[in-house]
Design goal:
This protein is mostly helical. The chain has one domain. Helices cover about 70% and strands about 0% of the residues. The chain has helices spanning about 5-25, 30-35, 45-60, 65-80, 80-90, 100-120. Helix 2 packs across helix 3 (about 45-60), helix 3 packs antiparallel against helix 4 and helix 5 (about 80-90) packs antiparallel against helix 6. The longest helix is centred in the N-terminal third of the chain and has 24 residues, at about 5-25. It is globular, with a radius of gyration of 16 Å. About 20% of the residues are buried.
Length: about 140
């Protein structure tokens, strides 16, 4: 099993990441609208709602009774925003504060599964890679 302190540190780091992302939903809404896929209905409202949900998810992740559900919800959320990251990369959309090269987009796209794992791991939903194989 992984050390308890490791999950705690990772949990607080991920919560901080989602709080920072949530703030972005309200401070740079117009920039985020540029990378929102066209098939998203009411994109501005969706950005505001998801910003609020990121705040709630971050708070719930560091709160014991809600941790498991928060981890699952944040992992699913990270999966759902992947199309926006893909659109940002493939269409070469310029956002002032972010680099526009594949040196940024490549690692960013590859890191999305890590965020999904991270949410599940620090919510104690999964133990991988620490879980030992049991012999049958």
């Amino acid at each position: 099993m992984p050390p308890t302190w490791l999950r705690a540190v990772m949990r607080w780091m991920l919560a901080a990441f989602f709080v920072f992302a949530a703030i972005g939903h309200f401070r740079v809404t117009d920039a985020l609208l540029l990378i929102t896929p066209d098939w998203v209905p009411f994109p501005r409202e969706v950005l505001y709602v998801t910003g609020v949900l990121e705040f709630i998810g971050a708070a719930a992740l560091v709160t014991k009774p809600y941790r498991t559900w928060a981890g699952i919800a944040l992992a699913l959320y990270a999966l759902c925003v992947w199309p926006a990251n893909i659109k940002h990369a493939v269409e070469g959309i310029q956002i002032a504060a972010l680099p526009s090269s594949w040196w940024y987009h490549g690692p960013r796209l590859a890191f999305q599964p890590v965020i999904i794992w991270w949410a599940l791991f620090c919510a104690e939903v999964i133990d991988w890679p620490w879980r030992r194989k049991t012999s049958a």
